[in-house]
């Protein structure tokens, strides 16, 4: 379980990224975070694995505070948390397999990692991860030669190889076309249902949030203003979260869903 208790984040310029956020997210949930640009979606996601230090409150991952964790405890907690970014965050000049293997780094000692000496079981795990996202044939290709959708699948495979129990995805489909967007969302949903991995995802397209999530959280100026099921997230609710009616570019479009 992920627990946020009275979490606030004030950036050094005084901007409130998050204000008094209280949330409990159970194992296996598929949670979409929606809201206007600047509402605090990235701040929330990045606070959960402490890529950003919060200003007050506490965040617990499976009963352990990540807020007050030591460096060593932080490494252990983070081992269970996979991160997926809009920009894929791959080492472009390295092979796909090498990128997926980097999900095993936290399980191996630094010297072996530097020397690229991964145990065979890790290599097998990485190949299996690539198979699950349907790009096993690209294992030995340089990552820079892949399409955006394929690169995002490599980063999903990396979280699979990591055996992450939580996936945090920050606008993972923002630079993808509608068809590839669906494929990436399908992969995430498959991992969520088959492996019981908790997925928390920031999404620009609200219809995508409704289609894939078990829960939608709406943010406005750093505050949670909606927390409910996709069924409860009516057009009126979205209008409240956004403070205006939805724009066409906030919908992927029915023909693509
Ligand atoms: N490093 C920073 N320093 C100062 N202010 C920041 C910083 N990062 C974010 N902010 C501000 O905090 C608020 C929340 O930003 P955040 O990136 O979390 O929003 P978001 O909902 O993810 O937006 P977007 O959809 O545009 O990515 C915004 O007002 C933003 O300008």
TrEMBL record:
<dbReference type="Pfam" id="PF00005">
    <property type="entry name" value="ABC_tran"/>
</dbReference>
<dbReference type="InterPro" id="IPR003593">
    <property type="entry name" value="AAA+_ATPase"/>
</dbReference>
<keyword id="KW-0472">Membrane</keyword>
<feature type="domain" description="ABC transporter">
    <location>
        <begin position="2"/>
        <end position="246"/>
    </location>
</feature>
<keyword id="KW-1003">Cell membrane</keyword>
<keyword id="KW-1278">Translocase</keyword>
<dbReference type="InterPro" id="IPR003439">
    <property type="entry name" value="ABC_transporter-like_ATP-bd"/>
</dbReference>
<keyword id="KW-0067">ATP-binding</keyword>
<dbReference type="InterPro" id="IPR050086">
    <property type="entry name" value="MetN_ABC_transporter-like"/>
</dbReference>
<protein>
    <submittedName>
        <fullName>Phosphonates import ATP-binding protein PhnC</fullName>
    </submittedName>
</protein>
<keyword id="KW-0918">Phosphonate transport</keyword>
<keyword id="KW-0813">Transport</keyword>
<dbReference type="InterPro" id="IPR027417">
    <property type="entry name" value="P-loop_NTPase"/>
</dbReference>
<dbReference type="GO" id="GO:0005524">
    <property type="term" value="F:ATP binding"/>
</dbReference>
<keyword id="KW-0547">Nucleotide-binding</keyword>
<dbReference type="InterPro" id="IPR012693">
    <property type="entry name" value="ABC_transpr_PhnC"/>
</dbReference>
<dbReference type="InterPro" id="IPR017871">
    <property type="entry name" value="ABC_transporter-like_CS"/>
</dbReference>
């Amino acid at each position: 379980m992920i627990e946020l208790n009275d979490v606030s984040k004030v950036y050094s310029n005084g901007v409130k990224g998050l204000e008094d956020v209280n949330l409990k997210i159970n194992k296996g949930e598929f949670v979409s975070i929606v809201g206007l640009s600047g509402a605090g979606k990235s701040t929330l996601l990045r606070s959960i694995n402490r890529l950003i230090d919060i200003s007050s409150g506490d965040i617990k991952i499976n009963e352990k505070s990540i807020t007050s964790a030591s460096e060593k405890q932080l490494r252990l907690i983070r081992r269970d948390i996979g991160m997926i970014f809009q920009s894929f965050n791959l080492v472009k000049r390295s092979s796909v397999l090498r990128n997926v293997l980097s999900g095993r780094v936290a399980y191996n000692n630094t010297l072996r990692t530097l020397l690229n000496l991964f145990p065979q079981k890790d290599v097998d795990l990485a190949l299996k991860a690539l198979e699950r996202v349907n790009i096993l044939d690209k294992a030995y290709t340089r990552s820079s030669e892949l399409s955006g959708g394929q690169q995002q699948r490599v980063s999903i495979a990396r979280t699979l190889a990591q055996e992450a129990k939580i996936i945090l995805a920050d606008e993972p489909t923002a630079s993808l076309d509608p068809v590839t967007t669906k494929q990436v969302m399908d992969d995430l949903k498959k991992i969520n249902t088959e492996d019981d991995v908790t997925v928390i995802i920031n999404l620009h397209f609200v219809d995508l949030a409704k289609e894939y999530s078990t829960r939608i959280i709406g943010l406005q100026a750093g505050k949670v203003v909606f927390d409910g099921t996709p069924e409860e997230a009516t057009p009126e609710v979205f209008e409240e979260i956004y403070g205006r009616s939805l724009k066409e570019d906030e919908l992927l479009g029915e023909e693509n869903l």
